[in-house]
């Protein structure tokens, strides 16, 4: 699962020190591993019906505003920065691997890590900067959390790509909580955590190990094919693709162990070409773990790095943690139950952990029928209602039946509810 990278499918990242702020977002330096998180108790409030106060700023509401109090309560939780949380363990493993494997010319880590960037972004950052078309399905109001027409809760960490490249960075990892309206089951949650990786190369850097480097170029005036962009030379694309796949294979081997089988599936994203999904064979089953590709040169050029070519990837922390620790339900990551949290208090971030279930009580099942209120109604509207009332006790919502009357529609849904009693 490549999170929004997967949603973006059509078929099926130092030059100078980072300034104190990137487009108004507070970040930290290459030598720091985290930035100050905002406590969730003070993250959001709604002083009146026409504005939303979030992370110290006020956002006027309009016809696009659809963020619920339930979702606002999650902003600032920053599970990926909570020590010994399973998502923190995964983030630290990835960060530790990149810090040790890739060293810059001055002996410091090549990749900078940004794990405290604000989840509130502009629509331009989230979509336009990534070349996502105006009519693309990923922009729909029913699939995103909008504060208003201009601001939203980021749907992917890719929303920070342009700003970080524009600040002068060539290699970085961006980690954070992302928000998408989605179905209710054990693998989907409206808030999840993603890591974005970007690496840019100059001509000298990319061809440094090749003799007669002066005869090779990054760019040409050619034609777009299934294997390259019109402005890239085939030699440059082949080397960037090789480096990308090598970096990601080493990363997954570091996390899951030696002997890991990997395969690559061609796909399509608006912001990379060529694009790939990475699958690993874990315990006899092929599992998708991330999306990646050669960055669209138009994006790189617009951010001010016209003389460079690069790759990007996006992975979901929950996806990796559920596979590695055998956690069966994504909602468990939000649990404050000590029986869950204590299982991940380990002396070393790479220690093997197998999750132990918290309860053996069977779920409760309730079937309900109701008339849909209007033509603008979306199934995600019902999921939001269910989450607002039932919280994370709602394990699954299933459509059982529907009946269409000449003027309205009746649906029947099954709610599967967890029992919170201890085993």
From TrEMBL:
Compartments where located: Mitochondrion matrix
Catalyzed reaction equations: tRNA(Phe) + L-phenylalanine + ATP = L-phenylalanyl-tRNA(Phe) + AMP + diphosphate + H(+)
EC code: 6.1.1.20
Keyword Chloroplast among UniProt keywords: no
SUPFAM superfamilies: Anticodon-binding domain of PheRS, Class II aaRS and biotin synthetases
Domain of life of the native organism: Eukaryota
SMART domains: FDX-ACB (SM00896)
Domain FDX-ACB: 359-423
UniProt GO BP: phenylalanyl-tRNA aminoacylation
CDD domains: PheRS_alpha_core
Example GO molecular function: ATP binding
Domain (Aminoacyl-transfer RNA synthetases class-II family profile) ranges: 176-347
Pfam family, one: tRNA-synt_2d
Keywords: Aminoacyl-tRNA synthetase, ATP-binding, Ligase, Mitochondrion, Nucleotide-binding, Protein biosynthesis, Transit peptide
GO CC, alphabetical: mitochondrial matrix
Family matches, as PANTHER family: PHENYLALANINE--TRNA LIGASE, MITOCHONDRIAL (PTHR11538:SF41), PHENYLALANYL-TRNA SYNTHETASE (PTHR11538)
Membership in a protein family: Belongs to the class-II aminoacyl-tRNA synthetase family.
Protein name: phenylalanine--tRNA ligase
Protein source organism: Anser cygnoides
Biological classification of the source: Eukaryota, Metazoa, Chordata, Craniata, Vertebrata
